[in-house]
Design a protein that fits this description.
The complex is a heterodimer of chains A (115) and B (112).
Chain A (H helix, E strand, L loop, with lengths): L4 E3 L2 E4 L5 E6 L6 E7 L6 E7 L2 E4 L8 E4 L6 E5 L8 E8 L9 E2 L3 E5 L1
Parallel strand pairs in A: 2-11
Antiparallel strand pairs in A: 1-3, 3-8, 4-5, 4-9, 5-6, 7-8, 9-10, 9-11
Chain B lengths: L3 E4 L2 E5 L4 E7 L5 E7 L5 E7 L5 E4 L2 E6 L4 E6 L8 E8 L8 E2 L3 E6 L1
Parallel strand pairs in B: 2-11
Antiparallel strand pairs in B: 1-3, 3-8, 4-5, 4-9, 6-7, 7-8, 9-10, 9-11
The chains are: A mainly beta (115), B mainly beta (112).
Chain lengths: 115, 112
């Protein structure tokens, strides 16, 4: 079974530039999550989708971050414009809706450096 | 607001020793997760604990949950170097006002 795919693996940009990350969840997983993990900290949930609808985006800085999951499969997370404090690893995860365990499977992440 | 606290945050121990990582959380929870993260890698699910008194074991790791005390423990038995990693607990209360919250992680370094 293929895992959660993310690209790119690494990205270096200057502040005020824009960047986009892509995620392809495990086939059949209705729920998709984007997390921000700053070095030395635990992942922080940015946005949660169920199919193509947003379940929770309360911690997403909406003035600069946006995310979409138009067809309920792939998702993109965009930052525009980037700030220095956005330097982090952006993790995508997916889970199968309807199971009590709700285990999240994580992708390898995109490491963003904002200079 | 749901808060998750882990301790210790850093742990250096000798091979062969036993130790316990603690995870406290602030509100009622339906599910508690333990994840492992190796340096530069993503998170790998270890255990899911769903009910009071739940105990799960895999190799040298054993996780337990006390929902009344709002406490989960991850116990390491006879540690080996391969267990060196960062361990996270995460809590999901299923409350619409809450979200899945991760602890800060425990960075475990096992000395050969």
């Amino acid at each position: 079974e293929a895992g959660v795919a993310q690209s790119p693996r690494y990205k270096i940009i200057e502040k005020r530039q824009s960047v986009a990350f892509w995620c392809n969840p495990i086939s059949g997983h209705a729920t998709l999550y984007w997390y921000q993990q700053i070095l030395g900290q635990g992942p922080k949930l940015l946005i949660q989708f169920q199919n193509n609808g947003v379940v929770d985006d309360s911690q997403l800085p909406k003035d600069r971050f946006s995310a979409e999951r138009l067809k309920g499969v792939d998702s993109t997370l965009k930052i525009q414009p980037a700030k220095l404090e956005d330097s982090a690893v952006y993790l995508c995860a997916s889970s199968f809706l309807g199971l009590a365990k709700n285990i999240q499977y994580f992708g390898a992440g995109t490491r963003l450096s904002v200079l | 607001e749901l808060k998750v606290e882990q301790n210790p945050l850093f742990l250096s121990m000798q091979e062969g020793k036993n130790y316990t990582i603690y995870c406290n959380y602030s509100t009622t929870s339906d599910r508690l997760y333990w994840y492992r993260q190796d340096p530069g890698k993503s998170l790998e699910s270890l255990f899911v604990l769903l009910s009071n008194g739940a105990v799960k074991q895999e190799g040298r790791l054993m996780a337990s949950l006390d929902t009344k005390a709002r406490l989960s423990t991850l116990h390491i038995t006879a540690a080996v170097h391969d267990l060196s990693a960062t361990y996270f607990c995460a809590v999901d209360s299923r409350n619409r006002d809450d979200k899945i919250i991760f602890g800060k992680g425990t960075r475990l370094h096992i000395l050969p």
